[in-house]
Amino acid sequence: MSDPAAKAAVEERAALLLAVRRAGVRDISVMRAIETVPREAFAPYKFRDLANRNLALPLGCGQTMSRPADVGRRIEALRIGKGHRVLEIGTGSGYGTAILARLAWEVVSLERFETLAIEAAPRLAALEIANAAVLHADGLAPEATLGEFDRILVEAALDAPPAALISMLSPGGTLVYARREPQAGEKRARQRLIKVDRTESGEPHETDLGPHSLGPAASGLAKAL
């Protein structure tokens, strides 16, 4: 490859995928989805030169674009199949939405910040992703008319998922979120990545997937910050 810039971009992309694997992501379909979604298409313009690094990047409205390795861990935990309907709480830039859309039959993503929701939709359209919809909505109090979902991903830290979300999870479905666990004497609560499997009988079963980090969840609608 004679173009130094193109060569550097390929090397950065390879290093990014290696970082995702080192974080423990092994599912081939998840790795392929991450490989085929250009993160630079979702990163703020002034940070696009950092898009192919395993770094969290600032977004508008005081939000953050998660590290690709963390996105990969959350999505792998869902075990998404081609026939699954997925609900994402917290669209952000739309990067995670695009990866989910590569894996699922349908993705509905709810974003409380109107500005972020408006900006994410054309990014997905530019990649010709037709099976994902971004809605300006309160993800912690979703409308029941959205129906049931096979998989739910909460892109935020909670003490526990709201009953409204659990009720939208189909029997046999899976929900993934980061749980806050306050520690005595510590100002900032530690977090654990939690997978909730709803059994066919409707009972939830939790699995702790280890330390994680996400911004705190907030309820209600907002235009911007």
Automatic annotation (TrEMBL):
InterPro entries: PCMT, SAM-dependent_MTases_sf. Pfam families: PCMT (PF01135). Residues 180-209 have a biased composition (Basic and acidic residues). Residues 180-225 are annotated as: Disordered. CDD domains: AdoMet_MTases. It comes from the Bacteria. Belongs to the methyltransferase superfamily. L-isoaspartyl/D-aspartyl protein methyltransferase family. This is Protein-L-isoaspartate O-methyltransferase.
